[in-house]
Amino acid sequence: MQQNIRKVAIIGTGLVGSSAAYSILNQGICDELLMIDINTERAVGECLDLSHCIDFTNSRTKVHTATYQELGDVDIVVITAGPPPKPGQTRLDTIGIGAKIMADIIPQIMASGFNGIFLIASNPVDIMTYHVWKLSGLPRNQVIGTGTSLDSSRLKTYLSEILDVDPRSIYGYTMGEHGDSQFAAWSHVTVGGKPLLQIIEEQKDKLGHIDLDQMVEDVKKVGFEILKRKGTTYYGIGNAIAFITKSILNDDHKIIALSCVLDGEYGETDLCTGVPAIITRQGLKEVVELHLTEAEQEKFAHSTNVLRDYMASIGYEKKALELV
Ligand code: NAD
């Protein structure tokens, strides 16, 4: 019988990495989960604790620590190594340390012969995804970041509370940087197929009070609201990582707002940012190009400009903006 073992590795077994691992194990998403951290004792501790979940789950996932040399036949390497921003910092403030960590670990992973999919969650995620793409030399379909998947989910959560509709029946995305310059593509948010803007127009008495701009501000800031209260965020991103991992391994062709290397889409090249994308067993199949309104396009251009400025700070040349 042909054996088709689904292997996932998580690099960085801190709060985000261990939350992702917990979610992956509980959903039986892979057969083998490999955990690596520069703090090897931490990785061993997490593996021991996680391995004691198996008896209470539906599938026997093997979870253990590993070395980089053992990653040659892994399907997905998830990167969650790096410090979360401290109070008062933005995600972009961790760029220097994040860039150094990627420069340390990616060559070691590639030396193993790894030819699977990189899924990056470390912040600033758009820039780290681009950096990993460059460092790995892999084609763009094999390097994706969690992008605005979590932000889009937060947006849908707010809408679901106001509309009293399951967030999974709401389709829509925040796009651009996973950070302060992101924006919501309101012209493409639908509830059960009906455009949100039309619903609001038709139900002015009930919904006219919704402040869409404020809602985007709340999405941008809520991570820091959590940070203020409990230090950092990890359950939401942990589940997002598990969801994306499952979509890849199941070849689901799901559309998720991820950080992708753009190659002409939205008039941009040589840059990673949050866009809706079709995800398969090969990673990125296609970036979904929404017809944005002029105002949304301007916000997209602003966000990519912010990202290019920060990319320049770690040595990537800033190119002129090309707007469609
Ligand atoms: P954490 O401090 O709990 O864990 C980070 C882990 O990375 C630590 O265990 C540390 O030992 C490890 N590490 C550091 N350098 C390493 C190296 N060179 N090799 C291997 N491991 C290394 O932090 P956290 O809360 O788990 O956050 C991790 C990252 O995830 C941060 O960059 C954070 O900003 C990011 N994050 C992203 C999102 C998102 O939506 N993309 C959401 C939350 C957090």
List the helices and strands and how they pair.
Elements: E1 7-11, H1 15-26, E2 32-36, H2 40-51, E3 62-65, E4 76-79, H3 95-111, E5 117-120, H4 125-136, E6 143-145, H5 149-163, E7 170-171, E8 174-175, E9 183-184, E10 190-191, E11 194-195, H6 196-202, H7 204-207, H8 212-230, H9 235-249, E12 254-263, E13 269-280, E14 283-287, H10 294-313
Parallel strand pairs: 1-2, 1-4, 2-3, 4-5, 5-6
Antiparallel strand pairs: 7-10, 8-9, 10-11, 12-13, 13-14
Structure described in brief:
The chain is of the alpha/beta class. Helix content is 41%, strand content 19%. The protein has a six-stranded parallel beta sheet, with helices on both faces. It has a three-stranded antiparallel beta sheet with strand order 7-10-11.
Key descriptive features of the protein:
alpha/beta; L-2-Hydroxyisocaproate Dehydrogenase, Chain A, domain 2; 2 domains; three-stranded antiparallel beta sheet; 14 strands; 41% helix; binds nicotinamide-adenine-dinucleotide
Which CATH class of the largest domain applies here? Answer: Alpha Beta
Summarize the amount of helix as a percent range: 40-55%
Instruction: Provide the spatial order of strands within the biggest beta sheet.
Output: 3-2-1-4-5-6
How widely separated are the two ends?
A: 52 Å
Alpha-beta classification:
alpha/beta
Main beta sheet: strand number and arrangement?
Answer: 6 strands, parallel
Shape summary: globular
Order of helices and strands: EHEHEEHEHEHEEEEEHHHHEEEH
In CATH terms, what is the fold-level topology of the largest domain? Answer: L-2-Hydroxyisocaproate Dehydrogenase, Chain A, domain 2
Oligomer: single chain
CATH superfamily placement of the largest domain:
Lactate dehydrogenase/glycoside hydrolase, family 4, C-terminal
Radius of gyration: 19 Å
